[in-house]
Amino acid sequence: MIRAYSGLMTLTRMIPSLRRSLPDPLSADLWPEATVATVTDVVVSGISLLRLVEVCGTPCVHSGAAVVPRTGGRPSTTDRTTVLVVRVTSVEHAPSGPVVVRTDARLDDPALIWLEARLIGRVSTAHNGLTLVACRPLEPDAGTGTNGRAADLPQDVRAGDLLAIPSEPARTSFTFWTP
Description:
CATH superfamily: Lyase, Ornithine Decarboxylase, Chain A, domain 1
Strand content: 25-35%
Number of helices: 2
Largest sheet: 7 strands, mixed
Structural class: mainly beta
Distance between the termini: 28 Å
Order of helices and strands: HEEEHEEEEEEE
CATH architecture: Beta Barrel
């Protein structure tokens, strides 16, 4: 079952053109410590995810201390969390139903927090909406049914875009596959 967006209503959600000057807020408890959003990037503990992609390519992973929930960003002394960055390889816009996105990674990991997924690398002024991200990039029905993960992404997502997806704490590695 696919759920609709259940997050906070923000100015950038209501008026997406504000994203040109105001970054979409992120849920600090769900990202590694010292994570800051900019209009086109996410910076984790001083490391730009865009710069990380320039150096490592995609898919790539960056880890940091997890945040203790409801502490205003205090880092955990025991748990770590990661952010996965993937590149969109294709987008299918169905006349009715959600947008289906395929990436350059196999995304079977259930610890990824899909409703926190965000576009990096460019500013989108399109409204967000339900998007299914295919878990297996090469299978024809990979974006449907149980093989797709629901994300809340701008509806103008296109091939070449970068997505940053945080994971639940205690995960320090991902199993992903590149074609």
